[in-house]
# Entry
Amino acid sequence: MKLFQVMAGARYGGAEEFFVRLALAFERTNVDQRVAIRGHPLRKKQLGRGGVRMDTFSFGRWLDVRTKFGLGNIIQDWRPDIVLTWMSRASRVCPKSKLGREFVHVGRLGGYYKLKYFRGCDHLIGNTPGMVDYVCGLGWPAECAHFLPNFVSERRAAPLDRKILNTPGDAPLLLGLGRLHENKGFDVLLDSMAFLPDHWLWLAGTGPQEAALRSQAARLGIEKRVRFLGWCDDVAPLFSAVNILICPSRSEPLGNVILEAWAQHVPVIAAASEGLQQLISDEVNGLLVPTDDAPALARSIMEITSARAETLAIAGWASYRESYHEAIVVRRYLDFFNAVAL
# Structure
């Protein structure tokens, strides 16, 4: 099996991180793999360290003919069985076969995208059943839409010393993790902190809302209990140091952070947005609260006892091992490739 993966993603992001994990996992199988990426230094270092053969392109906008020409040359010369393009831009610029369907083009969705970017694809992958239902509802053939989940790193690490971030060792500590964007609902999490005078918050991520969130924390008078960490490439020490992961997203196709918390044995409280409702069984492997409801979020946080937190963490780990473990996900991808290859 010859697999050519194309990722035109940003420097940071959940889909981008999963692409790296999956590419490295494929290198440990019998897949003959090659990838094309933007030249982000960390991504190149991670893939190179794992022995992944890679090419870099600019993946510019519509007038970038060099990227499309370069991808076409690789496909024509190397002749992959499967071309897996990650999200809209990579799927759009992937050349069509010149000699008939000599490869199968699979597009992987990263959200609820418009189908116009995936017209050249033979199959689409969604990482939630809801995403598959969405594209089928837009007219994509059901037999060509497939649910394949993500996996995350299970590596455990010693806790980050709270003293480094001037956080009391005995304070209940919350973690918010993700891009600082309106969709992530971190403004709701900050509002909830006003009802939680004994709790502290580490907020790890970067994005367009950072300045607004810092101003909000100051306006609420909680800035002394909130730490903005920026983007963290290694989140394992954070999970080992905190008590609860909070995911207040207004819109979340999957929620990699939930899988990360489950894999790290950390209990989860999340907003009941569509993707998170599909992932979390309320009161079993996590708690769900209404979206945009800071008082309800605060109440759920206050109701978490040590015993309940442990029960939720154990159930979350069981859910991860059953459906999202690396070996399970990689096997599902390989079975899918073998089923659709020409």
